[in-house]
Amino acid sequence: MADADLDVVIRRLAKQQNRDIVAAAKRRRDHYAGLAAKAKDSATKEKYRQIARATLMQGTAAAKRLQLAADNAADSYARSIRNAAQEAAAKKTVKKAKTPAA
After folding, report:
1. Which of 76, 79, 98, 100 has the fewest CB atoms within 10 Å, counting from its CB?
2. Is 68 exposed, middle or buried (0-12, 13-18, 19+ CB in 10 A)?
3. Per residue in 44-55, pLDDT tens?
């Protein structure tokens, strides 16, 4: 991993965090779905079902925002490295052109 580019590492970590967030949201959804199944009256059952739906929706939205932010950071890093490499190459060519031929 020492030779890996930082943008690849950022994307890999974000993908793992994304999986963890979605899995946690699904566990919470299942918990509330279980409570809904055990509920005695229909109002309580519907309340737990709504909480389960909202939990999963908010969890997936958070995961998407995290993934988008990580992609933006990785793209920005890759672009800055690419621009720095181009500038360094341009400076080398300018230095070679300025040296007088002997």
Report:
1. 100
2. exposed
3. 999 999 999 999
